[in-house]
Amino acid sequence: MLVPGKTSGRAGIADVARLAGVSIGTASKALNDRGQLREETRARVQAAAEQLGFIPSSVATSLLTGRTFTVGLIMTDHHGRFSLPVLHGAEDALGWAETLAFVCDTRDDPIREQHYVRSLLGRRVDGIIVAGRRAEARPPLITRAPVPVVYAFARSADEGDCSVVTDEEGGAVLAIEHLVRTGRRRIAHVTGPHGHASAIARVAGVSRALRAAGLEPVGDPWYGGWSEVWGRFAAAALTREHPDVDAVFCGSDTIARGVADGLRESGRRVPEDVALVGVDNWAPIAEECRPPLTSVDLNLREVGRQAGRLLLQAIENGHTPGVHSVDCQLVVRSSSAPASGRT
Amino acid sequence: MLVPGKTSGRAGIADVARLAGVSIGTASKALNDRGQLREETRARVQAAAEQLGFIPSSVATSLLTGRTFTVGLIMTDHHGRFSLPVLHGAEDALGWAETLAFVCDTRDDPIREQHYVRSLLGRRVDGIIVAGRRAEARPPLITRAPVPVVYAFARSADEGDCSVVTDEEGGAVLAIEHLVRTGRRRIAHVTGPHGHASAIARVAGVSRALRAAGLEPVGDPWYGGWSEVWGRFAAAALTREHPDVDAVFCGSDTIARGVADGLRESGRRVPEDVALVGVDNWAPIAEECRPPLTSVDLNLREVGRQAGRLLLQAIENGHTPGVHSVDCQLVVRSSSAPASGRT
DNA sequence: TTGAAAGCGCTAACAA
DNA sequence: TTGTTAGCGCTTTCAA
């Protein structure tokens, strides 16, 4: 089955050495700028390598050094809305092709996850990033990994692990502060399912920020789904029950878009009568919203960047346990423009 | 810099052999079910491996066999709407962790692409999948790769390469046929920018299907952008210029959603007065559309699956040049329900 | 300044 | 049935 020595047509260092008329060891030194070599020799070897299109096999050096400059990125989020930005951030931190990432989509299946982890370990990855799909804590990897693991976005339920998360509560605070600063006083909160970790965190942030501003909430938080339908429904009910509402903070851009449509259809103008802020800053929704939606960006890319950085650090200098939190960022669009001259 | 022999705490086959009281060679045979061994020995070795949590280093076997069971997946599509399904399909074909994929996002930067390719080649990937972002042909990889390359979604401009694409023209035909079959006769086509490959292919499909049905197009194709704003604008203009229009085929779900809103706001009911079909079957848009949108699915996952399959085939049995086309699939939702009893 | 040789973890011939 | 050895492609001592 295994045919040894299937050295493809690729040039090896032996070919380079032969072409340059030096020994393999000398060629190695020349190519890696190590040791003491005559400049002429070095140049000759490099020219030979160039000519042959020599690309050193990192398989060989990995075997030698025990390091592969390779990590695993496990994503559980099938459509990638959350995992992709994390991947991009990780790529930033991993130095654009310095270290490469094996991406594994587990489809939320623990069996598959285990498979992937084993496979990654067999490939001797230097570390693993686990990118979750939601803000809930997730169970740690089943397989005990002999390499560092960093959880991104969804933190590990094990406090001894290293996780990077988004400060969702802080994001809500940002949103409310923005609304207050732009003159809104009657602020409602429409969010996703009751009991959902993100919803809980944001509700906490809303309360905190409203209290700090000396404002009463407009009714209880409105729990529902993450859909536009829910947003439209909530908008209708909200204007009926609290006709004086002048701002709505929504648990997601999707909800916010529904609220925007719902408000418009019940005769309220956005942002003149009611300001709107969503969460996710998901371009296809936020930018197509009428009007374009002010939104809290979860800064997932930065989460990925941090995760990558912490992973490299763990690989080089050991574990950094704990939950590392990344701030959200408010992206202002027209849906929250001040009603009048109030600033 | 390179510290040789940094054998981490991981168990190696030598440890397994020692624990089982056999030689390394014997341990290898036992673990790989090769050679003739006493059953008892095999079991003892396997137990030892189990106990030590031994996972064989594929780095070593890769060096030996010249095959890494690893591929590169280059994506140029930053938000992953097109590349992710391709990745998932590829994972299907690559046998869920049998072969692992390094995912590289080039951000459409040729320099970065070159970097990644070199890095992949250094890691001795068995092959490369290049997942494009649009239906336009793309220039082939700059670096001549000594391994098979398959282009997915965006085909290579070089006909000698192997590409897997979606049959966009066929998708348009599917849409028109569906509309005709459900009794529509005055069918308009609103699409993206003039000159865009996808738009061109779809326009061709529309003409073909209309001609086959013996119908006249309702005016020329409406070229614009891929946005909802364009859809809304087009809907208004369309109903003004062609009040008898009873169906609109849109170049994307986003456009279709704009058209849906535009129609509703000019007093047309969807689907009672006007049926609507989009392209992409992008859940967050198609499902949130009012009403939920019938859409042509590009079958990107199947594109990825094919690409993976062709790549493996190329790795094992050599190159399969040419453009391989995958059919689209119509996903029917309420936006195209028959107006009355006509079937 | 260069070459020769050992060895990374493992498999597969060959020897015992 | 088991052990020994060579070697995959490279880096790095150490000797020349």
Tag the structure with descriptive keywords.
transcription regulation (chains A, B), Rossmann fold, homodimer, six-stranded mixed sheet, 12 helices, 42% helix, six-stranded parallel sheet, 434 Repressor (Amino-terminal Domain), alpha/beta, transcription cis-regulatory region binding (chains A, B), elongated, 343 residues, DNA-binding
Any idea what the CATH superfamily of the largest domain in chain A is called?
Answer: Response regulator
Return the structural class of chain A.
alpha/beta
Order of helices and strands of chain A: HHHHEHEHEEEHEHEHEHEHEHEE
Q: Looking across the biggest beta sheet of chain A, what order are the strands in?
A: 2-1-3-4-5-11
Q: How would you briefly describe this protein structure?
A:
Chain A is of the alpha/beta class and 343 residues long. Chain A has twelve helices and twelve strands.
What features would you describe in this structure?
The structure is a homodimer of 343-residue chains. With 343 residues, the first copy, chain A, is an alpha/beta fold. The first copy, chain A, folds into three domains: 13-64, Orthogonal Bundle (434 Repressor (Amino-terminal Domain)); 68-165 and 300-327, Rossmann fold (3-Layer(aba) Sandwich); 168-298 and 331-336, Response regulator (Rossmann fold, 3-Layer(aba) Sandwich), CATH 3.40.50.2300. Helix content of chain A is 42%, strand content 16%. The first copy, chain A, is built from twelve helices and twelve strands. In chain A, the strands form two sheets. Chain A has a six-stranded parallel beta sheet, with helices on both faces. Chain A has a six-stranded mixed beta sheet with strand order 7-6-8-9-10-12, with helices on both faces. In chain A, strand 9, helix 11 and strand 10 form a beta-alpha-beta unit. Chain A is elongated, with a radius of gyration of 27 Å. At the A-B interface, helix 4, helix 5, strand 2, helix 6 and helix 10 of A face helix 4, helix 5, strand 2, helix 6 and helix 10 of B. The structure holds a DNA duplex (16 and 16 nucleotides). Chains A, B: One of its GO terms (molecular function) is DNA-binding transcription factor activity. Chains A, B: Pfam families: LacI, Peripla_BP_3. Chains A, B: Residues 11-65 form the HTH lacI-type domain.
